[in-house]
Centrosomal protein of 76 kDa (Paramormyrops kingsleyae), 613 residues
Amino acid sequence: MSLPPEKASELKQIIHNHLTKMDIHGKIRDVLAETVREELGPEHRALSEADFIRALQRRGIVDDLMKQLQFSKEVSPELSPKPATHYVDTEGTQLRKTNIDPSRRYLYLQVLGGKAFLEHLQEPAALPGQVCSTFTLYLHFRSQRFRSKPVPCACEPDLTEGFLLEVHRETAGEGSKMADATAMLSICDPVHMVLIKTDPAGETALVSSHFLDWRSILSSPNGKTSLAVELLGVGSECKVPAGVLNVKLELYPPLSDTLSPDVVSTQQSMERQRRAERERLFLVYAKQWWREFLEIRPSHQTKLVKIFAQDENGVNRPVCSYVRVLRAGRILESPRQAARFVSLLPLERAPVVGGGGRHEQWCSLLAFLCRNKGDCEDHATLLCSLLLGFGLDAYVCVGTKAKAVPHAWVMTCGTEGSVTFWESLTGHRYLHQPINPDDPPLAPQPRPSYPYRTVGCVFNHKSFLANCQPSDTVELCIFDLREPSLWKSMSEDALLSVCAPGSGSSVPPLPPLCGPAWDPAAASNHLELEMRLLVSEHRKDLGMTTAWDDQLSYLLSAALSAYELERSTGVSCGNEEFQDAVRRAVPDGHTFKGFPIHFTHRNARRAFATSMR
């Protein structure tokens, strides 16, 4: 990067001031005197620069200097480009200072703009102040997640962003030794890039989901390489290019000895061959298993036994690969809170061009989280992964609801034999009590409260079981999964060969959950102000004045908290105190009426319209 002369002299002055503050010159003089005294001895050989740098490193002066340096990515106001038009960044991206550890290896991934996003070729230029659609790029690499600033959609979007990815992580059990080229060649984790389009109304759409193999940089002589990444569309458009991103990769610190390009390409082709062979063997096994399943009863042909599902890139993957053990850290504190979290992600079927029924598309977890909405299968696999993380014996069930609509939900099996269904779209839980068809007609039978009609198969990250009972009606099914006469299981080893993450499978690495990007209290206050304004305006149109009682408003917050707690835990509490406080606040001769409405969005206008209905 070239700097103007005045900036260069300013930078030199900053460096000089920092070194003076550390008294670096005094330390260097002391080391120089000591080195001359100790190491040269009577021979008087010339003191080389390398000898002197070694002496500085031995005494820890270089380390002290590196520890005090902080690298931050801040844009100076006069250099920052003006946005092409107005857009609203609701989840403000904060630039954080990063302390770089000189003993670790980093990959600096720079996105230097996009081109050939032909869908936006004819888009008219937005007027000043007009809200327009935006692109946001999300990245995941080895349990690190990043998000770019939103930029206006265009044929050549101004996506310029830098991401510092730690290649070698102690948390991955790789020790504290600096990773060399050979060690990094064996790291097969790709950089998962997800591009999301947000329209002016705040609705999100998945534009592309791309896996970037970054290891070509290991063969570049100066530790830098530039490439044009072609992003393909998703779903029915997975073979159609969506656009191109110009990407520059850089290794910090650079490698002392690089690999030859042949070594890198050989390693990549070996991994591809190993993956293809494992997938071929699994397909042979799955066909044989399916033939055996049909031999039990010919009617099994009509059961919903789903072994493979297409992801957003049109790749057929075993359904077990969509479920993994996912720990949420301190973000979610209990299984019921996890169910509440998943139920708040909106439901949206995969978009399809033209008619012809439902188009099924299962999403990778990162694409689902970044888009912030998905189909029932995405909700069920995420909830199952979280419940497995909480130590429960959880499975995804594939079957139908009323009117034979295909559906997926979650089931947990207790140690005492109890079976609980979890509806991932609502967070509701149902206890399963099977009906015995051989009971006498007058014997009392439990009435099922759940909406499920049939179940064809259940699966999690390491087991797949197909229902081979005479009837697949849920209320008649017995969920004793260890009984081979009721459930036909697949080999666990066969499933793990293609579903376990690593170089042997095409399963994307699991991204971690991130904490909220905005402050809930601030968002709550903002929403309340918007609602007050809408109510006041509506009453004004009817010729009425509006007075707000702040004390009563504060008392209602206790009720809202109790409703939220009941949704998260299933336990109701604090109602007596709220009733007592309201009775004291309402004057004699007046009546208090309140009705709770539950929303899964933060749009004040939509909430007001629903309340008016």
Remarks:
- DSSP finds 14 helices and 18 strands in the chain.
- The longest helix spans residues 261-296.
- The two ends are 59 Å apart (CA to CA).
